[in-house]
Amino acid sequence: MRTALVIGTGLIGTSAALALAARGVVVHLADHDPEQARTAAALGAGTDEAPEGPVDLAIVAAPPAHVAATLADAMRRGLARGYLDVASVKGGPRRELEALGLDLTPYIGTHPMSGREKSGPLAASGDLFEGRPWVLTPTRDTDTEVLNLALELVSHCRAVPVVMDADAHDRAVALVSHMPHLVSSMVAARLEHAEETAVRLCGQGIRDVTRIAASDPRMWIDILSANPGPVADLLADVSADLDETVRALRALQSSDEAKRREGAGGIEDVLRRGNAGQVRVPGKHGSAPRVYEVVAVLIDDQPGQLARIFADAGMAGVNIEDVRIEHATGQQAGLVQLMVEPKAVPVLGAALRERGWALRQ
Fold first, then answer.
1. H helices then E strands: how many in the chain?
2. CB under 8 Å to 210, separation ≥6 — which residues?
3. pTM reported for the whole predicted model
4. Where is average pLDDT lowest: 27-31, 229-233, 351-355?
5. Any bridge partners for residue 109, and if so which?
6. What's the CATH number of domain 3-164, 3.40.50.720, 3.10.450.50, 3.30.70.1130, 3.30.70.270?
7. What is the DSSP string of 287-352?
């Protein structure tokens, strides 16, 4: 791949363009908002000038509702040798293209499983996709050359290719992305009119659960409108679990010992099923989940604190597998939770204490 055209310079399109440009691909940028394309170009993602002829690959990074129309326009104009989209749903756009009677041999649907709460080119990063799954949904009609171009794109972005059927993909993302986003929003919505004294008690747990609720509602309306059936089916199952859990909690209020035991059993069941599901979530880089232990360090809200901790851990020969920061409400301090291999805990603990850090159990 020597040339590419990115149509849609939001978070995903600009991030892909940055990754391609960094690897020597000549990238042309287009957007319905020319100012957004100019912003992406200024960030080093490519040029907002139109290509003089067909490029090797056109990447459509438009909202799901506009993907088919944007692709159809690009294909009819002969803008590229191969075409793909990066929308978060795959079955609907493909069927729309089929209904338009287009030759789909130069097209493949794709979906990079990466993102963040912020949108637009200024939120983009050339390493956004690194180590993340990138789903490809070829059909029997997809040309081999186009599949290879898509694989080259994934390689340039340092993502991990995953081949799936389009409708299977849509059911999967409903489970691991779309439904959780709505549930996160529902939990966050409980905070909107909560007493300030209650909100001040928010800890890391509620921050983790509600983090993705900060995303742009307009973007999510587009996503959910393109995949409503699978999401509704999953929410119906969640609703049934909620009904059972409410009944179990009500039973715990009963003066009848047998009902309380029944209620406790119902709560235990949902918690244990949660345990069983959580351990299936892949660990770093898609590997099997691993058990880490936590070394908790108290830090002041001062520049360079995290860098010092990581440097001290490195000097001790300890690899930090993951990190979380729990902020102390109303105080200029926080607790950094360093996740490490169990055997590294005593080594890291001793090294950090020796360098003056305050550890917490």
1. 14, 11
2. 184, 187, 188, 191
3. 0.75
4. 351-355
5. 85, 137
6. 3.40.50.720
7. PPP---EEEEEEEES-TTHHHHHHHHHHHTT----EEEEEEPTTSSEEEEEEEE-GGGHHHHHHHH
pLDDT at 74: 97
CA 321 – CA 127 distance, rounded (Å) = 19
Distance (Å, whole) CA 82 – CA 59: 9
Q: Where are the alpha helices (DSSP H) in 190-304?
A: 196-199, 204-210, 217-225, 228-252, 257-278
Taking 60 as the threshold, does the pLDDT of residue 95 lie above it?
A: yes
Tokens for 117, please give them: 């709460």
What is residue 215's DSSP assignment?
A: S
Backbone angles phi, psi at 60, to 5 degrees: -95, 115
- Determine if residue 114 is left, alpha or beta; phi over 0 gives left, psi from -120 to 50 gives alpha, anything else beta: beta
What sign for the dihedral angle of Cα 148, 126, 226, 230?
Answer: positive
| Tens digits of residue pLDDT in 190-247 | 999 999 999 988 888 898 899 999 988 988 998 899 899 999 999 999 999 999 999 9
Residue 49 reports pLDDT greater than 90: yes
CATH 3.40.50.720, the chain: domain bounds: 3-164
Architecture of domain 293-360: 2-Layer Sandwich (3.30)
Choose among 205, 204, 211, 202: nearest CA to 184.
211
Q: In which residue ranges of the chain is CATH 3.30.70.260 found? A: 293-360
Q: What is the spatial distance between Cα 293 and Cα 311, in angstroms, rounded to a whole number?
A: 19
Cβ atoms within 10 Å of 40's Cβ, excluding its own: 31
CB 326 within 8 A of CB 334: yes
* Residue-wise pLDDT tens digits, 310-348: 889 988 998 888 888 776 555 566 788 898 889 999 999
SS3 content of the chain, % helix, strand, coil (to 5): 50, 15, 30
Rounded to a whole number of angstroms, the distance between the first and last alpha carbons of the chain is 53
Cα distances (Å, whole numbers) of residue 309 to 153, 201, 313, 314, 323: 36, 27, 6, 9, 11
